[in-house]
Amino acid sequence: MQRLVLMALASLLTMSCAAVGSDISVGHEPVMVTLSETAEKLGLKVEETDYWGERLLIVPGTNAHILVRYGCTCYWYNGLTRDVEYPGIKVDDRATFRFPLGMYNSICKDIGRIDLLRDEMPRYTRPAAVLNQPSIESIIPADDTPPAAPQATGSLKGMTIVVDPGHGGKDPGAIGITGVYEKVIAMAVSNRVADLLKQQGATIIMTRTDNDTYPTLSDRYELANTKHADLFISIHANSCEKPDINGVETYFHNAGARGDASERLARSVQSAMLTASGAEDRGVRSANFQVIKNTTMPAVLVELGYMSNMAEATKLAKKDYQETLAQAIVKGVLANQASNASLSR
Questions:
Q1: CB atoms within 10 A of CB 238
Q2: Is 25 left (phi over 0), alpha (psi -120 to 50) or beta?
Q3: Is the entire prediction scored with pTM above 0.90?
Q4: How distant is the alpha carbon of residue 190 from its chain centre?
């Protein structure tokens, strides 16, 4: 009899453990849906932004919009953060955005289409990697001093340069681990880059001049093309689902002679940023970002660092580090211009 009781208890314990495992399902993902099927079902319009890993969903006939970003465990409805259960927003090898069914249902509620809700799977625990980051105060000394600004030489006199602060307005860009918006960092660094380029004699055109404005991608490159600019510099900060990833990178579009000129500019800017900042080298890469693909002049897109990394996000919010990066970008432009001048002799 005692043996039968023990067997019964063991059986109940096994069933209990199995039930707990099915609730947690740590090793399994919830049902995933695609961005395109969500947009089609809910009647939303999909728009690209100037960051490859994000999309805007527009509610036709209204000002409502939804921003989704690869690697995030949240999305933004009219600028308000909405949490998404693990594993967040993914992009597969066919560049198809996928996210948990719970996010689809949350969007339904946001836009008032509860009639289109679908059955959810159990919710999952969000990865805790971010929680292991060091504290902000332990990362950077408060008295960092930026290097001296490049000496004004007038060597860019006669040149028109478009400076493009990424994102803006309804599009915050990446939201850093410290809560800072990418659009704010991009604007701050772009303003200093513009000032320093003016000191070198260049005529500067900004694609936006405040954080409340959102120029579309076509607005940005059409402005540069219409003004017959000599150079186009788009300034951004990066983000990644892995919080340990950090570093600077510079992109260009590889297309003929303009592509060659863009690559030379990208390598010059990247080299100057690495020297000035001591940041990890994420490389110079070719990409099809619209703002550098559709411009008719040499164009680069600069990623100042990863806002998903605690150390880099903290530095990017500091004015002295912003100054360091701005000066480096301008030194890269000057070095490239000097190299071009020597090649033309």
A1: 24
A2: left
A3: no
A4: 16
Q: Per residue in 100-156, pLDDT tens?
A: 787 888 888 888 887 888 865 433 333 333 333 343 334 344 445 666 667 766 689
Nearest to 317 by CA among 327, 328, 306: 306
DSSP 230-268: SEEEEEEEE--SSTT---EEEEE---HHHHHHHHHHHHH
What's the length of the chain? 345
Q: Is 44 helix (H, G, I), strand (E, B) or coil?
A: coil
- The Cα–Cα gap between 190 and 180 comes to 16
Which residues fall within 8 angstroms of residue 101, CB to CB, at 6 or more apart? Answer: 30, 31, 32, 33, 118, 119, 120, 121
Tell me the CB-side half-sphere exposure of residue 70, using CA atoms within 13 A.
17
Q: Which domains does the chain have, with CATH numbers?
A: 32-125 (3.30.457.10), 152-343 (3.40.630.40)
**Residue 25: pLDDT over 50:** no
Give all strands of the β-sheet with 203-206 in edge-to-edge order.
203-206, 160-165, 231-238, 299-306, 248-252, 281-286
State the Cα–Cα distance between residues 330 and 50, nearest whole angstrom. Answer: 22
Full DSSP string of 162-179 = EEEE--BTTB---B-TTS
> What are residue 77's DSSP bridge partners?
66, 80
232: amino acid identity, one letter: F
Q: CA–CA distance from 283 to each of 249, 252, 286 (Å)?
A: 5, 11, 10
- Angstrom distances, CA of residue 46 to CA of 19, 129, 331: 40, 31, 38
Q: What is the pLDDT of residue 111?
A: 87
* Cβ atoms 117, 42 nearer than 8 A: no
